[in-house]
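Researcher: Structure for this, please.
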Amino acid sequence: MAGLLRGVARTAVVAGTATAVSNNVSRRQAKRFTEKDQQAYAQQQQAYQQQQVSQQQSYQQDVDFDEQLAQLAKLGQLRDQGILTQQEFEAKKRQILGV
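Model: Predicted structure, token format:
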């Protein structure tokens, strides 16, 4: 009977230890997966923000180009009307285009 009791006690200790180890492994794995998910989310957020900035810059360039065209058209009209000389027109054109 004492041998049986000892065997049951040993089995209980082994099972308890196995459960504790298993729980620790599960917690560590869950922590790693959570960290990986957080890193992936952060990378996605950064990529999204970069995309937004790129789109805003592209839009701003389009607006600037349209504005430059309008200014050049107005300058052309002033030159055609004789208000600006060709040299003044060229100088202002270079200024607008940043050349």
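Researcher: Any notable elements?
Model: Residues 2-97 form one domain. Residues 92 and 98 are 10 Å apart (CA to CA).
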